[in-house]
Amino acid sequence: MPTAPREIAQIAVACRDVARATAFYRDVLGLPLLFEAGGMSFFQCGPTRLMLSLPSSPDLAPPGSILYFRSDDIAAQLATLRAGGAQILREPALVHRDAHHALWLAFFRDTEGNMLALMEERPAA
């Protein structure tokens, strides 16, 4: 039986304007820019690399899937995003609580119309 993949190595995010999206992900979201090549930009986000590129076909045009970024302080990070001009769609809200943790989510859009989210898991009180 084949083994399952270990982890996600790279995620592609389709953009209408790669330069504009690069500025957002670098300057507003604060992800480290690794390199730019062939009209694409690559960022490091934990163990996963994030690639910004033009869609390879019209059916892959943004907006696409939702990326959930882990946060240690969702309110502070959302304030930074707001100050950077991000379109905030939903303020932090408690969406789940169990015996181990409380899950908070907040949603926003990048410059390309992609919906993104911040996710904070707090220990149960």
Automatic annotation (TrEMBL):
EC identifiers of the protein: 5.1.99.1
PROSITE patterns: VOC
UniProt-listed Gene3D superfamilies: 2,3-Dihydroxybiphenyl 1,2-Dioxygenase, domain 1
Signal peptide, first to last residue: none
One of the record's GO molecular function terms: methylmalonyl-CoA epimerase activity
Domain VOC intervals: 7-121
Keyword Isomerase appears in the UniProt entry: yes
Pfam families: Glyoxalase
Protein's UniProt keywords contain Isomerase: yes
Keyword list, A-Z: Isomerase
InterPro entries: Anthracycline_SecMetBiosynth (IPR052164), Glyas_Bleomycin-R_OHBP_Dase (IPR029068), Glyas_Fos-R_dOase_dom (IPR004360), VOC_core (IPR037523)
Entries under SUPFAM superfamilies matching the protein: Glyoxalase/Bleomycin resistance protein/Dihydroxybiphenyl dioxygenase (SSF54593)
PANTHER family: GLYOXALASE-RELATED, VOC DOMAIN-CONTAINING PROTEIN
Protein's UniProt name: Methylmalonyl-CoA/ethylmalonyl-CoA epimerase
Organism per entry: Rehaibacterium terrae
Upper classification of the organism: Bacteria, Pseudomonadati, Pseudomonadota, Gammaproteobacteria, Lysobacterales
